[in-house]
Amino acid sequence: MSALERNQEDRSDRQQQNTEQNSEAVLQTEDLTVYYGKFAALRGVFMKIFKNKITAFVGPSGCGKSTLLRCFNRLNDLIDGCRVEGKVIYRNKNLYSKKIDPVEVRRRIGMVFQKPNPFPKSIYENIAYGARINGYKGDLDELVERSLQQAALWDEVKDKLKDNGLSLSGGQQQRLCIARAVALKPDVVLMDEPCSSLDPVSTGKIEDLIHQLKQNYTIIIVTHNMQQAVRVSDLTAFFNAEEGEKGNRFGYLVEYDKTEKIFENPQEEATREYVGGRFG
Q1: I need a surface site. Which of 42, 46, 134, 148 has the fewest CB within 10 A?
Q2: What's the order of all strands across the beta sheet hosting 249-258?
């Protein structure tokens, strides 16, 4: 283990003690490193994600935030040349064990992407389709209504469920994608910059929705907007990037703690500089 890795592990141990001592860890990474080809994009991450908390990942571009997010539901499996070392533990099981079915992982750990991506189907079918192909045996009408209500969209679309999902506004489309993600009752919902393409009013609605959803789900959000991290998250992880021996940049976890501590009293100099706007 290199000096950097030892420092990261020691730092992680301290931070885990400071975050949510009495909370249940739903996800945990142990010395997680992600390679694209021969180069490490993210190195030596130790962290825990806690139940029914909103955890924000912040940091400059290229520091591995989205790479880590995709590790949690094995979307990196779909990228040629990507290799994951270390462990991602989900409820006491290593998600990268050969016995684990990635499709089942993605059912339990849902994903909302940066740009709204509704299916080119009706609003109703956007919700019902995934349930149907996963063998859902319950009342689809009830499922659709419940999911849209959870996404704070039901009152706006209940009279036009047969309309194409693409006919909705950008903010409504993103809430439709959130409704689709929660329809199968996942345990964890991942959000990769879900408001980056939305106007301020739509952003506010999504942020309010995120607060409501944490009652039932564990949420991880990647955001470049530090004010958004302050508004929505309970915990914040700050990532940075530096140049490796062969000139390629890699990301690493600098500091992870309660959000107010990260933004008001960070322990690491790099965190202080980032939240103070001196780089990023």
Answers
A1: 134
A2: 93-94, 82-90, 25-36, 39-50, 249-258, 235-243, 54-58, 218-222, 188-192, 109-112
Residue 280 within a domain: no
Q: Domain containing 236: what range?
A: 3-275
CATH number at residue 165: 3.40.50.300
CA 154 to chain CA centroid, nearest Å: 24
Model confidence pTM above 0.85: yes
What pLDDT, in 10s, does the model give residues 184-227?
899 999 999 999 989 999 999 999 999 999 999 999 999 999 99
For residue 242, give every residue at least 6 positions away whose Cβ sits within 8 Å of its Cβ, in sequence order, or none. 249, 250, 252
Burial label, 233 (beta-carbon count in 10 A; 0-12, 13-18, 19+): buried
